[in-house]
Amino acid sequence: MASSCSQALRHHVCKSSRILQEIVIPKKKTWSKEAVLQALASTVNRDPTASDYRFQDDPYLTPKTSSEFKLFSLSQESGRNAAKYFISTYPKYFQKDYAQPHIPCLMPETLEAQIEEVSEAALIERIQMRKVKAAVDLYDQLQQAGTPVSLDVTNQLLDLICFYGDCDPAQENVPEQRNEETEDVQDEPQTKKGRASKASDKLKAAWKENNNAERIFALLSEPNTHSYSALIRGMVKYGAYSKAFSTYTDLLNNQLKADVSTFNALITAAPEVKEKYNEKWELIVDLLKQMAEQKVKPNLLTLNAVLKALRRCGTVGKSQAFPVISEMRALSIDPSLASYNHLLSIFYKPGAPFQGQTDILQEVMNEVSGKSFTPQDPDDAQFFITAVRICLDTKDIEQAYRVHELLGVGENWRLLGNDFQQNIYHARFFSLLCMMENIDVVLKWYRDLVPSVYYPSSNVMRDLLQVLDTDNRLDLIPQIWKDLKQLGHGNRQTLVEELLTLMAREKQNQEVQETFAECALDIKKMYDTGDRGKVMMSWTAGSLSDLVSVLLAAQRRQDAWEILKLFKTHNRVPSEELLDKFLTCIKESGDVNQALELVQISAGFCLPGTPKLIQRVQQEFLLSEQQKSMLSDLEIQTFNSD
Amino acid sequence: MYRRLLINIYQVRNGLIHTQNTRLPSTKCKERESFAPVIWAPCTARPLGTSSISFSENKENSTSLSEDKEKRPEENEAKEEVNTDGQKSTEISNATLTLQLETEPVDKPEDSKQVEKTKSGKESLLELLGAMKVEVTTVRKIRPSKTPRMSERPDQEPMESTHSMFQHATAKGSQQQGTLNPALVAAVSAAASTLPNRHQAESELLKQLRKHEAVPDTQRRADGQNIGHIIADMKVGGRKTNGRSSARPTSQIRFDDDGKGYTQDRGITGELDAVRRRKSPFTSKRLNIFTAGMEQDTLSVLGPTLWDIDLANQIVQATNQAPRNGFEEMIQWTKEGKLWQYPINNEAGLEEEASVPFHEHVFLEKHLDESFPRQGPVRHFMELVITGLAKNHHLTVQQKKEHIDWFRDYFRQKDDVLKEAEA
């Protein structure tokens, strides 16, 4: 009994021990501070009817046009900057700390150096405050006093000098302001200007011969890798490419090894120092081989630097781009969007003909679609613009949809870049839609994008009108006109004239004609008032006659008559067909007096068709004696004038 | 050859379904579907008679069929263009198949007109065949013998199995061509010429034909399903030599296993995709400069340098950091330290107490030891105090200690009073 009992017990123990073995205690999950908020944020979808979140505080400040958008977003940013400026300039007025617990970022930054004495600590402080001149002066003083400065601090100083090219940094600006000059050119294919301004920023300061960096570097008894790295990167940043390479040779002569960032800088500089495509590429390969020799592991920035350099290597770039990517893949370096951007730029040169390269985009899209990317390279933000440009150039709507889909994955929307780039992207995407899709699809996208994220330019709106025209949905014109007015394109003469022409061209059914007439009168108001400070549109004969025919088609004879009078006031001449049409319309109502007036107007313009009109009036209307004589007088007059 | 035939059947059936979809009202669909097994039969060596009923039923749609007849070869042609390794022969055999299907029901009504019509159809078919590169399939071998036979005896009872029809057909054929029809021989050699080793194929084809004549009528009735075997045999012959035969093994397998007998998802785009995937440039060869498991020499890392900070700054500037909704703005504020952190567990706000274990809070007796009396009312009071403190979650350990210390001081000051009261 006892044995069976113990057996049972043992059995039980065995069982429980087996169960115990199976228990896996889960690891403690640590959540980030923002985890809850991120979860909540992921539940909010974009509302296509609402404006950007930035503008939701005040409905009055909801931007309706691209210029308003620019103005409001910039004013918000500049307001922040102004506040920051005052806090930092007058810190003594902002010392009271209300926050509990203390919030450091709300307190004024100290902009003045606190340590006055000549010491290494003071130097470190000046380096941290990025005061280049003051730091260099202090270093000199320390040298004169014979105080040794440690190599690390000297390297930091070198970093500082090289980074700012031996100049004091300008007042730091917050991202939005940087776009000010580039955003002005929205209706144009902007890329040129955007790039030009960036390039000019870089070229502002050039590397000067024997500047402080070189001087301090020369003073170092035993410069290490870090010192060389700082110097070479500075040289590359400020355009002293060949000098960077000679410094690198110097480094090798001193039996030192370079670091990754040095190589990255040198690879960036490689296309600048060689002329031929082959030589450029050989230099890059040489650098990569030296990296391998010195056991320096490349990183993503190396990959991107190589690809960026290959953009300037013509056909060599096309053949070598994929091996480079495979090489980096083998080192488990996954390309970022910047890599793909460079890749696309290698294969699709803007303005060059595209033959048989469409599948490169497709390949790239196969690689990236569905993936969520994190920003790792400043060039990451160029990818979407480049991809959609290629779609537009090759008229590949399918890939464009894939690009747009990729934008919705994860945090990829951040990589679309700033407002300016977003605008370019959407403009290209929408133009492509207008080109390739039918009106229903285009309108679906139009309602989705405009005006919550995209304020179309007048050119794009003209594209939209063309789509309306080709798909024969002219009845939507009054709606589009409303949007046009809201988008601030109501005073674009060419656009408005095109609108009028489209409305006047064909006869629609009665209901549509009614809305057209309303729309036409609205357009007329636009001509009359002309907003303060905006360009006034001037009537042309074409726009006036289009307006008249739209009104006539809607049986609005009286309105049309008013417009007809405008011909005289604006010194425009109506066409004969228009008057003929008008007469037909008058005949339907049988208003003899107006018919006579019309003839008189025609005679006033000395139109060659006047006799014909007179004839028609004589035949088709019941005239009194007096009217008859008047007509015959007119007939004689015109005859004489001829 | 077998493979071709399979393709043919696949196409014919596709064609059938196509016509169903486009032309026929749904009521006729069922009858149409019953076609499929008939065409299916030759390649699976199933007895051909299984679906003879469908033929009799097809009588009703004979008219629509004859209409279809004009249409179908065109469809097949169109299909063939799509098909990457489509061959001319598919068309021919398609045509023969359809004809075989269509003539029978058409012939059955005793109408000379109808017969003429069939004949004209046959003629046009022959023209078509003539125009093509002549390749003979087994089906075709049967056809010329069978169709005249069918037209000769239009009174045949509808319930007779196709199997027996085939038998009749072949029997008649053998009578008609005591020795092999020279035209047929020519056709066989032409067909064989398309195969790599023409002599083998030709002799095999001819052998098969002769075998038909040699076998007595009765015996042939018994193993009439040999048509399937013939095709199977030929498959072997073709397989050995035809280099392309392995081009679509997958489709063949799918064809066999799949009850429907065709796969619609396997379009040209699918194949092209497969081709592209194989050739993806992202899997191209590498430069072979670096070795994968390379160890990096550890350089002295001094935290982020100015360059690193600048890179991060550039990335931030290049990307869109504007919040899209209130929550994202709150995330931004949290990161900047402007906002109270949203609680993510039960320990929110425990920053200064996070490192203090719970027993420090609860077991406070150790603080009572030295300066308090061991017993008596003071001790009793202090025990109550620490019990209260142990349950108080608003105070930190430090505050609790201070609390106790305050009492310590207090009782020390009142020492005289306490002694007086002899407490």
TrEMBL record, chain A:
Residues 172-200 are annotated as: Disordered. Its main location: mitochondrion. GO terms for molecular function: ribosomal small subunit binding; rRNA binding. It comes from the Eukaryota. It is found in: Mitochondrion. Keywords: Mitochondrion, Repeat, Ribonucleoprotein, Ribosomal protein, RNA-binding, rRNA-binding, Transit peptide, Translation regulation. This is Small ribosomal subunit protein mS39. It comes from Cyprinus carpio carpio. The lineage of its organism: Eukaryota, Metazoa, Chordata, Craniata, Vertebrata.
UniProtKB/TrEMBL annotation, chain B:
Residues 50-121, 237-266 are annotated as: Disordered. Residues 66-82, 105-121 have a biased composition (Basic and acidic residues). It is found in: Mitochondrion. GO terms for cellular component: mitochondrial small ribosomal subunit. Keywords: Mitochondrion, Ribonucleoprotein, Ribosomal protein, Transit peptide. Pfam families: MRP-S31 (PF15433). GO terms for molecular function: structural constituent of ribosome. Residues 50-65, 84-101, 243-253 have a biased composition (Polar residues). PANTHER family: MITOCHONDRIAL RIBOSOMAL PROTEIN S31 (PTHR13231), SMALL RIBOSOMAL SUBUNIT PROTEIN MS31 (PTHR13231:SF3). Belongs to the mitochondrion-specific ribosomal protein mS31 family. This is Small ribosomal subunit protein mS31. It comes from Cyprinus carpio carpio. The lineage of its organism: Eukaryota, Metazoa, Chordata, Craniata, Vertebrata.
